[in-house]
Structures are given as structure tokens and as C-alpha cells.
Amino acid sequence: MKRTRLSPEQRRAQLIDLGAKMLAQRPLEQISVEDIADQAGVSRGLLFHYFASKHDFHLEIVRHTSSEMLARTAPDPYVEEARDPMQILRSVLASYVDYVTENRGTYVSLLRGTASGDPDMRAVFEQTRAVMSERTLEQLPAIGIEPTRAVDLAVRGWIAYVEEVTITWLRDPHLTREELIELNVQALPALAIAAAPEIAAALVSATTT
Amino acid sequence: MKRTRLSPEQRRAQLIDLGAKMLAQRPLEQISVEDIADQAGVSRGLLFHYFASKHDFHLEIVRHTSSEMLARTAPDPYVEEARDPMQILRSVLASYVDYVTENRGTYVSLLRGTASGDPDMRAVFEQTRAVMSERTLEQLPAIGIEPTRAVDLAVRGWIAYVEEVTITWLRDPHLTREELIELNVQALPALAIAAAPEIAAALVSATTT
């Protein structure tokens, strides 16, 4: 590959992007610095100019991938206003299921492979889940649920539920895409009822109108 | 420590038991073969007579711990008969919450530490979750839920929900033990409703009588 002139920021972004693409084909621990340097047409030494270690490089790939997933699954503020809260939730879950389906190798190997045992990688995944929890909690008052500590816990648990159900489905897809999305969507108000039985009545009336 | 005469089976069990006890104090990767051999009063070489490698020894510790957890949380067939299905579920979850509270170091480090990234350890955890799923699925017909593929997936997801909620609670216990148990218990019928809305009516009538 011809060596092209890039600014340091561009070069760094290019290297991370090449790593993230490679992650779709193989697990993180099999992404070598040599392969990436070759693809980018730079020396191995230059790559270590941008990243302190192989582990640091891998961590940046994981951060990039997590940001991409969060960007893809962000609620759309323009489309949202016209919709009811359950439709917003359905649209977020559809984006999530489509993202992980397109990136199944990446998604499964990060959350269920060796990376899941690394403290720094885990911190990135935890941060990603925290963003997803916060986004979800923000939507709850619109369906009649005021956050309590039990509801907070239930939403965290719901994120784990969605991950587990979706990864199991990716490996053995007995349900259709639409059935999977609905399973994940309906779980949220169901768990919120379980966490806050006193507002069950209000919720049922909000979701059935 | 005085070297005592044990049969090979007893010696093997003793070494695993010492390892499991040490796991309560430190993560798996910090359990050295030397420490265990010293405690048991045997040579490092003898330990490797029983276990092919340090990794094998660690794996047996994890298997032992998982079996112990499954034994502690098994539904009690004698007490059960007198109870309704939700009471059985409540009793299983109470045993689970008490087990992981007593063994919080072990539980959190196995499921959220380095071990969670090891393929062999993961296989043990997956097997443990599969047993918990099967036990749960067996109870569902009694509350009016016949297993479908969506219900199967929901039960797997519920196991992940319970793990995440419980680990979050261990780290930051805002709820009481009883509130946590109830949060986990109520999530199961709630998720089953979400997975099989057509039987919601039957379920509601079964759980409220």
C-alpha cells in the first residue's frame, strides 16, 4: 500500500479504524500490530508512537467500537417527538439489534470473549452500559415511571437481559428479528412493573393507550 | 502443617477445597500452586500429580464453587410440596442471594473478573446458568406458562438480569435483602408475560390467588 501523508490525528484515527474493521473478522487478541501497520503502510515503530502498547491500541479499538454502537442506537430527537415512548424504545432496540447483527463477530467476541475479562476493557463496557441505562431512565417518566433505586437496578438488569437474549439469538436465531425486538422492548415495562408495583396501574394505562 | 495420610481422592478434594476457600480472599489468578501446596503440607510436584497445570487446578476450583452454588440453590423437594410456585421461586432466590452475599469475593471475581474471559471458565459458568435455566423452566407450567422459544430466551435473559442486579447490589446495597429478593422474584413472571403476552391473563390470575 502506498504511504499517504496524513496528519497525526488522521493517522491515529486511521489505525484505530483499521483495527475496528479487523475486529469483525477475528477476536481482539488475534489483532497484531504488524498486520495493522502493514495495512496502513506504516512501520510497527510508528504505530507505537501513537499507542503506548498493544493493549493500549486494543483498548482504543474497543472504545471506538463502543462509541459507534452508542451513536447508532441513540434515540433520534427529530423523529421522536412525533412518536409515543414505546415507539422510541422500539426504534432504539431495532437499531441495536441491527447493529449487533451487522457486527456480530465484534459484538460476541468483545462481550463474551477474552476481552470481557480485562479490567480496562470491562471499564469501557461498563461505561457503555451506563450510557444505555441513563438514556433508558430518561424515557421512563414519559410512560409513568419515576426512577427509584429499585427501578435504577431494574434498568441495569434490563441492559444485561437485552445483551444475553440478543447474543443467544445471534448464535441460534429461532425468533425473527421483529420477535426479538419485541421481546427486548416488552421486557422494559415488565421489569419496571416488577420493580415498582405501586405504579403498575399507571404504566398499564400508559402502554395500552 | 503436619503431612497427613489421605487417599488420592481425599487429597485431590482437599486441594480443591483449599483453593475454593482461598478464592473468597483473592481473585483466581492470584491463587498460586505454592501457597496451596504449603497449606496442604504437600510438595508442589504432588499437586501437579493431581492437576495437569495451574489452569487445570483453577478450573477445578471454579467447578467446585459452581457445584456448591447449585447445591445451595436447589429447590427443596420436601418443603416445596406445601408451597405455591411463587414461594418456591422466592425460596430459591433467597438461597441464591444469601449464598452470593456470604461468598461475594468469589462470586464477583469469577463473574466479573479475569476468569470471565477464559473460555474454559466461561464454559463452566454457561453450564451453571443452563442448569439454573432448566430448573426455572420446570417450574413455569405450575404458574400457567408453557415453554416456547421466546419463553426459553426470556428465562436465559432473566438469569443474566438476576446476576447483574445482584452484583450491582453487592457493590452498592441500597435495597434491603428482602427488597432485592423480591425484585429478582417478580422479574420472572414479568418477563414471562413480556415473552408470551397471550398467556398474561392466565399468569396474572395464577400469581394473584
Overall description:
2 copies of one chain form a homodimer. Chain A is built from 11 helices and no strands. The model of chain A has no long low-confidence stretch (mean pLDDT 87). Chain A is 73% helix and 0% strand. With 209 residues, the first copy, chain A, is mainly α. In chain A, helix 9 packs antiparallel against helix 10. The first copy, chain A, has 2 domains: 52 residues, Homeodomain-like (Arc Repressor Mutant, subunit A), CATH 1.10.10; 136 residues, Tetracycline Repressor, domain 2 (Orthogonal Bundle). The radius of gyration of chain A is 20 Å and the shape is elongated. Chain A starts with 7 loop residues before the first helix and ends with a helix. Chains A and B meet through helix 9 and helix 10 of A and helix 9 and helix 10 of B. Chains A, B: Pfam families: TetR_C_46, TetR_N.
List the helices and strands and how they pair.
Two copies of one chain form a homodimer.
Chain A: H1 8-23, H2 33-40, H3 44-50, H4 54-72, H5 77-80, H6 85-102, H7 104-112, H8 119-139, H9 149-171, H10 177-195, H11 200-208
Count of distinct strands of chain A: 0
- CATH class value of the largest domain in chain A: Mainly Alpha
Cα end-to-end separation of chain A: 59 Å
Q: Count of helices of chain A?
A: 11
Task: Give Rg of chain A in angstroms.
Answer: 20 Å
Mean pLDDT of chain A: 87
Largest interface, per-chain counts? A-B, 38 and 38 residues
SS content category of chain A: mainly alpha
Largest sheet of chain A: none
Order of helices and strands of chain A: HHHHHHHHHHH
How much β-strand is present in the residues of chain A? under 5%
- Uncertain segments of chain A are none
Overall structural domain count of chain A = 2
Oligomeric status: homodimer
- Structural shape of chain A: elongated
Can you tell me the CATH architecture of the largest domain in chain A? Orthogonal Bundle
Fraction of residues in H or I helices of chain A: over 70%
The CATH topology of the largest domain in chain A turns out to be Tetracycline Repressor, domain 2
